[in-house]
What we know:
- The chain has a single domain (about 20-230, about 245-420), classed as Growth Hormone, Chain: A (Up-down Bundle), CATH 1.20.1250.
- Helix content is about 70%, strand content about 0%.
- It has 17 helices and no strands.
- The chain has helices at about 5-10, 35-70, 75, 80-105, 115-125, 130-155, 165-190, 210-225, 235-240, 245-255, 260-290, 295-315, 320-330, 335-350, 350-375, 385-410, 415-420.
- Helix 10 packs across helix 11 (about 260-290) and helix 11 (about 260-290) packs antiparallel against helix 12 (about 295-315).
- The chain starts with a helix and ends in a 7-residue tail after the last helix.
Amino acid sequence: MSNRDVLAEKSVGEQIVDAPASETDQGIVKDWDGEEAAVRRKIDCILLPILALAFFSLQMDRGNISAVLTSTITKDLHITTNQINIGTQLLSAGIVLSEIPSNIILLGFCEGGFIPGALYYLSTWYKKDETSVRTSLSFYGQMFASATSSLISAGLLKLAGTSGLEGWRWIFLVEGLITLFIGTVFTLLVPPEAGDGRALIGMGRWSYFTERESRIIRARVILDDPTKSQGHIQISWSNIREPSNSRALYTPSMIKSLGFSAVHANALTSVPVYCSIVWLTILSFAADYTGHRGPFVLLAITWNVITYACLRASPYAASKWHRYGVTAVANVSYCSMHILNVGWLSIYCRTPQERSVAMALAVMAANRAGISGSQIFRTSDAPKYLHGLTAVSALAGASWVLALGLFLQYYISPRKSETLGKDTNRVDE
């Protein structure tokens, strides 16, 4: 009988004298050398499509306002884009207020806590050096929705007048029904927790994973990060104290103002988003392969700084295809830095409580920006939006400086030295 077979027969909690210390942490013996890759691929195939589908639904529900702005909604409702901006601000404010409470509950209410809750949930299934790519893959659903919903909206706008409904009403109706359907599917199919594959649809009669696969799933992440052995966590006020997107909204309107029809503007909006999926894939794989996140966050922001400045300086008298090209390039990297930064943040959290709250705070910060950012592109600034583009360029420059400072802080901080002393794995910067 091989050593591997002997180990497989021993209980999880049994100590083996000649086993390396890292393999007996938390009373766990690593006896699955040839099985971990297959289990990880199984998790990928089950978990990532479900989360990506949920992100798709979330973005479709939040993002269709950008499509209806190219329709006749302001005329039909006798409102201005400034009033729509206020509505967008209220949405962002509601999300900010519900981020931490819903992440503490981890049931989520409204849409507020979904992103931090989903990202925390994802982190419980994977080891640290696997998180960047998987976080990005989950966000692909959101990015794909940004692109695909624009194409769907372009088609729905052609239904204007059908059954007495304007194009924007068709967008809200059809995309709302799609969101409800995806929400139901997600609830039925998502596994309840790491290692537990008994989805609600099975009513406890079957599981995605065998008993051994479930044990490997739990044990491998605990060996990588012992804090994940805590299971259900309680978050106190002290945990909350410790961790102490307007341009995308108006992109279809900006493209329409170049001389394109509403249908073409929404279709063309999807092109840079599909390109951004490729760009983010490259950065995410590079980050996990090298074990460094900071340089790739900086690279993504550098793209933003350069392209936003070019968009701001681009002559409005240039051909519509020239202006569209600059706008498209500026949209390729707009969300990459945020997604990579979330993965970077997750790795440096020391406890599950800190990870949960920190992710909520990060998403809160993004939505707080949405509250003020909703007023950057105003009716009086159309169609060139020079003031709005100036503000976006300045904010991109400020974020580059902050990211550089954060990278240098992690590079020279005592915390890195402590981690080097405790962990033989590659340390992220």
